[in-house]
Write a structure and sequence with these properties.
Length: about 475
C-alpha cells in the first residue's frame, strides 16, 4: 500500500513538474493570439447563470466559465460608463486621463473626449501587427477627433454614446417610455467609421447587428492577428431585444436582453471554432459597471453584493469576468484580485508589445494567473467616484472613507474613522469590523495617503461643452 501511494505521489510530482515547464515555456515565448474583448453595459454581478442567476439562461457564457477562467473578484475602473471604458482601454485610472468629473459621463453636447496623447490597447496591439475593430458603444467622445478610428481602431461600427441619449422631445412623459420602449424615442446615430449610416439607430436589432459585424470581421482576417472590442449597448436602459428573443426569458425583458447577449457570445465562439482558430484566440467577457437599480425590473442584479451602478460599494464596481483561450487558459476559478486596467499590460506581456513609457499605468500583468504559473500580483483596488477616492481594498479588507448609494438614492456620507469590511467573510459589506482590525485599517489609510500624494490628475474632459 505504501509503495502504491508513493508511486501515485511521484506521478503527481512529475505531472506538476511538467506542467510548470509548459507554463515557463509558454510565458517565455512571445504569443500573438487573436483578442476579443466583450464589454457589456450595466450588467450586474448576479445576472449570469454561471454567477448564480436562477432564471436567466446563459449557456454560452457558462461554456466560457466551464472551459476557461471565472474570476470572482474582478473590478472596473469606475462605476459608470465613460470613465470605466477609458480605464479599460488605457490601463489607467480615469482621473489620470481626465475622463471623469461632475457630469459623470459624456453627453451629445460634450466637447471633450479621450485625449489623443492617451495610448489605447488598440494602438498598442496595432504596433505589433494586429488588425483592429471596434463594434458597439464607444462613449469616449463623439466628435471626429475622438472617435475609435483616431484611437487605434481600423474599423468602427456602433453608437457613439449611451442608447438613452438624444431623447426625442415630447416622445413620452417621465419614465413611461423606458417601461415600454420604442426605438424612435431616441435619435441615437449609428456610425460606420466616421459616417452616420442610420438615425435613429434601430435598437431592436442592435445586438444582432453588432454580432454579425464581429463575425464578418473575424472571417475576413487570415493573414494577421486581430483585436476586436465588442462593447454592447445592452443591458443599459432602454432595453431592446430582437424578435427572436423578446418574450422568451423567465426573467422578462431584462432576461431577454441578456439571453440575446449570450447568443451573441455563442455566435463568436462558434465562428472561431469553424475558422479553426479557437486555440489561437483569447476571449474576455465583462461589463463596465454594476446594475442600474433605479430602473427596477429593467435593471439587473448585483447578486449578494451591495448596491449598483454609480456606487463604490461592491455592487457598483465588481463584475463578472470570464477568460477563455482553449489549450492555453486551463479551466479554473480565480479568487485573486483583477481589474480591467490589468488587461492592457497583460496583453503587452504575452504579445511583446511596448507599453507607453511616458504614462503611469494602474494595471498589472495578470498573465501568470491566466497561465496558472502564479497568483494575481494585484493586492490593491482603488474605488473612485468622479474625481474623489471613496474606498480602497487591500487583500480581503476594504475601507470606505466616503459612501454613497447608487444614483438617485442618496448623497455622500463621510466616515471618520473609515468603515472596514472583510470581503471574504462579508462580500455584502454588512458588518463593519474596523474595531477588530485596527492595524489593517491603518495600513489601508497609509496606502490611500501615498496613492493620493502621487496622483497627478489629467485635464478634465467631461465638463467641456460644445459652444452654441
Amino acid at each position: 500500500m505504501f509503495k502504491k501511494n508513493h508511486g501515485c505521489r511521484s506521478a503527481g510530482v512529475l505531472i506538476l513538474f511538467l506542467g510548470l515547464l509548459w507554463v515557463q515555456e509558454l510565458s517565455a515565448s512571445t504569443l500573438r493570439p487573436n483578442v476579443v474583448i466583450i464589454f457589456c453595459d450595466d450588467l450586474g454581478y448576479g445576472d449570469l447563470a454561471c454567477y448564480g442567476h436562477p432564471t436567466i439562461r446563459t449557456p454560452n457564457l457558462d461554456r466560457m466559465a466551464r472551459e476557461g477562467q471565472r474570476w470572482t473578484s474582478f473590478y472596473v475602473g469606475a462605476s459608470v460608463c465613460t470613465p470605466s471604458r477609458a480605464a479599460l482601454l488605457t490601463g489607467r485610472l480615469p482621473i489620470r486621463n481626465g475622463m471623469c468629473g461632475n457630469r459623470r459621463v459624456l453627453f451629445p453636447d460634450s466637447a471633450g473626449g479621450l485625449p489623443a496623447e492617451e495610448w489605447t490597447i488598440a494602438e498598442m496591439l496595432r504596433q505589433v501587427g494586429y488588425k483592429t475593430s471596434c463594434v458597439g458603444k464607444w462613449h469616449l467622445g463623439h466628435l471626429p477627433q475622438y472617435l475609435p478610428t483616431t484611437q487605434g481602431f481600423d474599423h468602427y461600427f456602433g453608437i457613439p454614446y449611451s442608447n438613452d441619449m438624444d431623447r426625442v422631445a415630447g416622445a413620452f412623459q417621465g419614465r413611461d417610455g423606458f417601461w415600454d420602449p420604442k426605438s424612435e424615442y431616441w435619435d441615437v446615430p449609428l456610425l460606420r467609421d466616421t459616417q452616420v449610416v442610420e438615425r435613429p439607430a434601430n435598437q431592436n436589432t442592435i445586438t444582432r447587428r453588432y454580432t454579425e459585424e464581429v463575425v464578418r470581421f473575424i472571417k475576413s482576417q487570415s493573414e494577421s492577428p486581430f483585436f476586436v472590442y465588442l462593447a454592447h449597448s445592452m443591458p443599459h436602459v432602454p432595453l431592446f431585444a430582437s424578435a427572436r428573443f423578446r418574450g422568451q426569458s423567465l426573467r422578462g425583458l431584462y432576461g431577454d436582453v441578456i439571453e440575446e447577449i449570450d447568443w451573441s457570445v455563442g455566435q463568436i465562439l462558434d465562428t472561431l471554432d469553424r475558422q479553426g482558430i479557437s486555440e489561437d484566440t483569447l476571449v474576455m467577457f465583462t461589463s463596465d459597471n454594476g446594475p442600474w437599480l433605479v430602473f427596477d425590473q429593467h435593471g439587473g442584479s448585483a447578486g449578494l453584493l451591495r448596491e449598483g451602478k454609480g456606487s463604490t460599494w461592491e455592487g457598483g464596481m465588481r463584475e463578472p469576468a470570464l477568460f477563455w483561450w482553449p489549450g492555453t487558459i486551463r479551466p479554473s476559478i480565480v479568487r485573486g484580485l483583477g481589474t480591467t486596467m490589468d488587461i492592457m499590460p497583460s496583453l503587452a506581456a504575452i504579445t511583446g508589445a511596448t507599453l507607453p513609457a511616458d504614462h503611469v499605468l494602474d494595471g498589472v500583468d495578470l498573465s501568470a494567473a491566466w497561465f496558472q504559473s502564479g497568483p494575481s500580483p494585484r493586492d490593491t483596488v482603488y474605488y473612485y467616484r468622479q474625481r474623489r477616492l471613496y474606498a480602497v481594498r487591500k487583500g480581503p479588507f476594504k475601507a470606505h472613507f466616503v459612501t454613497q448609494p447608487a444614483y438617485q438614492r442618496g448623497g455622500p456620507v463621510e466616515h471618520d474613522p473609515p468603515l472596514l469590511f472583510h470581503l471574504e467573510h462579508d462580500p455584502s459589506e454588512r458588518f463593519n469590523v474596523a474595531d477588530e482590525y485596527p492595524d489593517e485599517l491603518a495600513e489601508i489609510q497609509s496606502v490611500a495617503k501615498m496613492h493620493l500624494a502621487n496622483m497627478e490628475p489629467g485635464d478634465p474632459q467631461l465638463e467641456k461643452r460644445i459652444q452654441d
